[in-house]
Amino acid sequence: MSMLMSKSARGHERRELILRSAAALMAERGYPAVTMIQIGAAAGIVGSGVYRHFESKPMLLSALLDRVVKAMLAGTREVVAREFTGPALLDELIRTQAKIAIDNRALVAVYLRDAGNLPAEGLRTLRRQQRQLVEEWIFQAEAVAPYAGEVQLRTVVQAVFALINSVCTYDNPLPAPRLVESISTMARATLRAGLALPA
């Protein structure tokens, strides 16, 4: 039993290493320019060994993007389930989203640039998850600003996401905690201005 568990743990660790290596390479070079052999080399695995964990490069991309969107959804739902209300809830949503994005900069960069390379079914799944995320934010924003219309709410939420995610598209030298606070402050100001909330 211990040998089976050890083998399973090693397989999980190797899969995680492949995903991290793929995210870093794709963020740097773009999905089309990266091969499975290069991903394997970056992970210290023979190129063919990558196929034991992912049957194709599109499947690997799907696993990467599924991971980052699920992290965003889970973070949002966790905040909503806590005792925050009103503008404080929106502030915490922003801080949580910023931390997830900055902790997963390579994944977010790949998500922003390369989602269109997913197979059709994978892209449909990703778009559905994206809609769930945006709709949850719109629902919470509407509770704070019931006077705002659908178009205004959607515009503000999308602007906040764009602002937070933009920091993942270039090499920012700020330490992660300072970057989270900086981008959160800007995103909060954007949301308050867009919804005409007190500063």
UniProtKB/TrEMBL annotation:
GO-annotated molecular function? DNA-binding transcription factor activity; transcription cis-regulatory region binding
Q: Which Pfam families match?
A: TetR_N
Query: Which key words are in the record?
Result: DNA-binding, Transcription, Transcription regulation
Which residue intervals are the DNA-binding region? 35-54
Q: Which residues form the HTH tetR-type domain?
A: 12-72
- What PANTHER family does the database record attribute to this sequence? HTH-TYPE TRANSCRIPTIONAL REGULATOR BETI, HTH-TYPE TRANSCRIPTIONAL REGULATOR RUTR
Q: What name appears for this protein in its UniProt entry?
A: AcrR family transcriptional regulator
Q: Which organism is it from?
A: Cryobacterium roopkundense
